[in-house]
From TrEMBL, chain A:
It holds the Pfam family ABC_tran. It comes from Zhenhengia yiwuensis. Transmembrane segments: none annotated. Residues 1-229 form the ABC transporter domain. Keywords: ATP-binding, Nucleotide-binding, Transport. InterPro entries: AAA+_ATPase (IPR003593), ABC_transporter-like_ATP-bd (IPR003439), ABC_Transporter_VariousFunc (IPR051782), P-loop_NTPase (IPR027417). One of its GO terms (molecular function) is ATP hydrolysis activity. This is ABC transporter ATP-binding protein.
From TrEMBL, chain B:
The chain crosses the membrane at residues 20-53, 84-104, 124-144, 156-174, 186-212. The keyword Transmembrane applies. It comes from Zhenhengia yiwuensis. Pfam families: ABC2_membrane_5. It comes from the Bacteria. The keyword Chaperone does not apply. This is ABC-2 transporter permease.
Automatic annotation (TrEMBL), chain C:
The keyword DNA-binding applies. Keywords: DNA-binding, Transcription, Transcription regulation. Residues 11-79 form the HTH gntR-type domain. GO terms for molecular function: DNA binding; DNA-binding transcription factor activity. Gene3D superfamilies: Winged helix-like DNA-binding domain superfamily/Winged helix DNA-binding domain. PROSITE patterns: HTH_GNTR. PANTHER family: GNTR-FAMILY TRANSCRIPTIONAL REGULATOR (PTHR38445:SF7), HTH-TYPE TRANSCRIPTIONAL REPRESSOR YTRA (PTHR38445). This is GntR family transcriptional regulator. Pfam families: GntR.
Length: 286, 218, 124
């Protein structure tokens, strides 16, 4: 089951064009959305939330069209954007009083549990909270109505590692129910290493990679070796090849054919998500 | 509670609990204008709703909390409806308040407020409400389309007009009324102003609905 | 139940998990009928993807070590563990065949091979 279905979507903003022929986000998993700044992650999330209007194509969430049924869709979405958008002069407690009634599934006990977990002072004004606390408050508001889909746009950016780990931990806890899906964008690849089941990589408004974590962990390797070992078959399979005076290196997605051609002079290293991003970026520049 | 009601509740809660500066300055300005000069009553009644509507929207725009409205489970139509209902609520409250001040004024200084007595309570009320609705009808679509800052620039041109009209009309009425009180049908003036106000408000609502339907939050 | 996985190891994560669980089952730490942690719970605790734990459990199920009841969870099979052990032993014998063949090819004697095996066994 797909919680989000993006079909033939096009959106132009100034010089930038988002072009996604097809992207389906699976229900019940954490999908990480990665890419350089300006690659289209925020635009995509805003289109899903109906904050931006599509130039072409269609986006469906829970099977409903975002262009016409956003109200029903939003009831089941917990969204944390950048900026978080909560009323700056209100306290978290007051914010809850104003916003909670909009959601039929609001759970006060859950709200209190998260406030305690993050140790937030609900009597402080939102503008008085630190950046990290602001994000935590936004996350609490997003999670407390038990949404089926959690959308986060750079929710962990600019946060220190301790708070980031806390946030990811709470997200993973939410995943214990199979109906909850998380789709979050980040440019911090180590977050994805820790918490993601699928990874979507964007570059220049296009989706350049969509893999499950297990495949990313096991099949993507960095191949290094002397230039003479770089034959045509190998060169075709490698992504983002870099050659210098000392040899070459490239990214490979291991297939049966490839594994056979690997000789002893080649070094194969596991590629983490950051590596995959860098090599893919390099590859697309040509 | 319906979504529209929840939106109205949200704004009123935020305005009165957290935007104290906005409604206190509005209150003071309205009182000042309502008291200082008889003709300024209309100005007071226009400024009241304007400052309250503008105050909230400007704050939301600057603090980027307007995005929250677009991510809540509310339709654009409900957002628009709540805004216009709030405008009406502010208008009615300010109008009745100004009328109350007038009533007191008429007791304390009957000669100064003579023309209002002649106009009649209801007609005065209709003019106040009509004027406020017309002005509010102008600003809301402009804010939706161009944002608060541009709206202020555009409307700054009209401030002079509003003051001018209020004072000249009052002066005219002051001269004219004692002489021709039987000839002029004040109910007509009152009724017309109110009708114009209501029509302007409705047209404005339809325009805002269209603007809001396609509005993007970049 | 101790399951320690390494991101640096060459072995895929799901395999590390399934192998360690197999070990626990074969040595009797997990007995027939024991309920295993949920795919999601395990993923959260080990800090790996749900896909990984899912695959690990699929591996275990294919090998006959566990059974999954939809809606209830995964349990250690009541299948005779001796039979499973036998299956593992056959696999080891297959690998041993390959090792012995490679050793003969390069002229490694039985004694030398035995020595190396003993050294490595102590190391692990």
């Amino acid at each position: 089951m797909n919680v989000i279905e993006i079909d033939n979507v096009k959106k132009t903003l100034g010089n930038f064009t988002l072009d996604i022929p097809h992207l389906a986000i699976k229900e019940g998993y954490i999908t990480g959305f990665i890419g350089q700044n300006g690659s289209g992650k925020t635009t995509t999330l805003k289109l899903i939330m109906n904050l931006l209007k599509l130039d072409g194509g269609q986006i469906k969430v829970f099977g409903k069209d975002v262009a016409t049924e956003s109200k029903q869709i939003h009831e089941q979405i917990g969204f944390v954007g950048e900026p978080t958008g909560y009323m700056t002069e209100a306290t978290l407690e007051q914010t809850k009083q104003m916003i909670a009634p909009f959601y039929k599934t609001w759970d006060d006990a859950l709200f209190n549990k998260y406030v305690k977990a993050f140790q937030l002072d609900t009597s402080k004004k939102i503008k008085e909270l630190s950046q990290g606390q602001n994000k935590q408050a936004a996350l609490i508001m997003a999670l407390s109505h038990r949404p089926k889909l959690i959308l986060l746009d750079e929710a962990t950016a600019n946060l220190d590692p301790v708070i980031r780990a806390q946030i990811l931990d709470i997200l993973m806890e939410h995943m214990q129910s199979e109906e909850v899906s998380v789709f979050y964008s980040t440019h911090i690849t180590s977050d994805l290493d820790k918490a993601s089941d699928y990874v979507v990589m964007m570059n220049n408004g296009k989706v350049v990679l969509y893999e499950d974590k297990e495949t990313l962990d096991s099949k993507y390797l960095i191949i290094k070796g002397p230039k003479k070992a770089l034959n045509d078959t190998l060169e075709k399979e490698l992504i983002g090849i870099q050659k210098n005076a000392f040899g070459f290196e490239g990214l490979a997605r291991l297939s049966e054919n490839m594994a056979k051609t690997l000789g002893n002079e080649l070094i194969c290293e596991k590629a983490n998500i950051e590596d995959i991003m860098i090599f893919t970026q390099r590859g697309s520049r040509k | 509670m319906s979504t529209t009601t929840l939106l109205i509740r949200k704004e009123l809660m935020y305005l009165f609990r957290n935007l104290k500066f906005t409604w206190v300055t509005t209150l003071i300005l309205v009182l000042v204008f309502a008291v200082v000069y008889p003709g300024a009553n209309l100005v007071a009644c226009i400024i009241g709703p304007y400052m309250l509507v503008y105050g909230v929207m400007a704050h939301e725009e600057q603090s980027h909390s307007d995005v929250l409205n677009y991510t809540l489970p509310v339709s654009r139509r409900e957002l628009c409806r709540s805004k216009y209902l709030l405008g009406m609520i502010y208008t009615l409250v300010v109008a009745i308040g100004v009328l109350g001040i007038l009533a007191i004024g008429m007791q304390l200084a009957p000669t100064r407020y003579e023309m209002f007595r002649v106009l009649g309570t209801f007609n005065v009320l209709y003019i106040l409400i009509g004027g406020a609705l017309t002005y509010t009808a102008l600003i809301i679509p402009i804010i939706y389309k161009f944002g608060c800052i541009k709206m202020r620039m555009i409307m700054a041109l009209t401030y002079g007009v509003v003051f001018g009209i209020s004072f000249s009309v009052t002066n005219i009425l002051k001269e004219v009324i004692p002489q021709v009180s039987e000839d002029i049908n004040f109910s007509l003036i009152g009724g017309c102003t109110l009708t114009i106000g209501i029509i302007a408000y409705v047209i404005s609502y339809v325009i805002s609905l269209n603007i809001l339907k396609n509005k993007e939050y970049k | 139940m101790d399951i320690i996985i390494s991101n640096q190891s060459a072995t895929p994560l799901y395999l590390q998990i399934s192998e360690q669980m197999k070990h626990l089952i074969v040595t009797g730490e997990l007995t027939a009928g024991d309920m295993l942690p949920s795919i999601r719970g395990l993923a959260k605790d080990l800090k790996v993807s749900i896909i990984t734990t899912k695959k690990a459990y699929e591996e275990l199920e294919e090998g006959g070590f566990i059974e999954t009841l939809p809606g209830k969870g995964s349990y250690v099979s009541t299948v005779n563990l001796d039979i499973l052990k036998e299956a593992q032993i056959s696999k080891i014998e297959e690998s041993l065949h390959d090792i012995i063949e490679s050793a003969k090819k390069i002229g490694l004697s039985k004694a030398e091979l035995k020595e190396r095996i003993e050294l490595l066994y102590e190391e692990e």
